[in-house]
Amino acid sequence: MQVLIEMKDIIKVFPPNVVAVDQVSTDFRKGEIHAIVGENGAGKSTLMKVLYGLEQFNHGDILFQGQPVRFQDPGEAIAHGIGMVHQEILLIPQYTVWENIVLGAEPVNFLGVIDRQQARKLVQQKVDEFQFNLKIDDKVDDISVAAAQKVEILKLLYRNVSVLILDEPTAVLTPQEIPQLFNELRRLRDHGHTILFISHHLEEVLALSDRITVMRKGKKIATVQSSETTKENLAQMMVGRTVLFQSLREKSIPGAETFVVKDLTYIDGTLHKRLEQINFRICEGEIVGIAGVEGNGQFELVNSIMGLNKITQGQIKVTGIDITQAEILDRRRFISFVSQNRGKMGAAVHASILENVMMTHHRLNPHFTKWNGLLLNDNYARQFTHQIEEQFSVVMDRMDNPFRSLSGGNQQKVILGRELLLDTPFVLLDQPTRGLDVGSIEYVHELILKMKEQKRAILLISADLEELFRIADRILVLHRGMIVADLPTEKTDIEQVGYLMLEGKENDAKETN
Hints:
The protein is an alpha/beta fold. Helices cover about 35% and strands about 25% of the residues.
């Protein structure tokens, strides 16, 4: 198979002295699906950003079709046929599918006016060519997340990109949608496209890729044929130790009722009913998971619990105390909270790592202050930050550096450390392991189970059904703002939950059992 891209001895250093990519040499072949895996901070995303021109490398060479290249920005990469689809959807919701696809590369007539008929024709040709099931006149706001991801891919195919870099392409998909995406990616490969993708899901990596490059601490450990390795071998190469994958759930007897949501309804400012008659309870020593296709009320439920939404009706109690109308800081005395959006809700990215670690603790823990709360106790704050660094294996240079200097995975570890070390009866975890590697996920799951042993009540919202089945005692399915099922984990399976997520009701086969 023809080598399309060679990366030789690539070194990337972030100031002042963080070596993100350390003399990595690898190649990517025409018409292959090639996965890049590794722990958070291993350098895989940085390596792909270097290839795409988002980051400039300090040393090494990149050859594209045998010719040396050094892209100064993504525009140059796209001009050479290399495009990248990011994990976050970057489309304009109010525009149609075809308008999003041609944006910035619109065909024009002899007067320089956009030729809408020609644009729609070109987009429809691409949809048909690659057998993407899309209606080009639908608004992006009205299509599923999976369909929006296809639009992102088609934007690049419309620009005649032959190399697609995908960052965590299945992160926001349901189990039913993933095989469809994989089939489409295989069709692209069979058309001669090269697919490079970053993923933390090793089963998916093995199912989809032809070859896999494993990175650890900025270095390339190996490139292997997918057919010649296993999930266990990949995990061991990634983290340098054996990683276990079996269910961690153990039969336990829940304690007293800790967290109660009763008749919660939320109508937003546009008079849309986002949550309707939500009722559930969580006891101490119990982990309850919430499954649902993204956009079915999870975000509104989290904001309602945290006091960011003013609920229309209903009641929220923690340990018998009504917090329905409580201020956010007052709720924080009862609730540890890990947000799925660490950049906007979980952290102040321009503040230092130290300042981010102190948040909430400095208001609730007297050890963080001195002189009757007049001054911060800097020594204690630094000791606490060092504790999180050690306990959660955070890769950082200096704790006084900006929070944004950390990789995404290490940012998540800092937030997890800060929140899980709060002494609260209820823990709200919204996608706590999104973006983490298998070793870190295993550790976070162990921490959650320790909190369960401490008799804390835990609500875990996750798009990863395997995660829910691994540690949750019960699974609630959220569909169109309503809870449509409350299932003991041992009495259901991923297929049943996935169907409920999509349809909001049991299928006929399940109903007749």
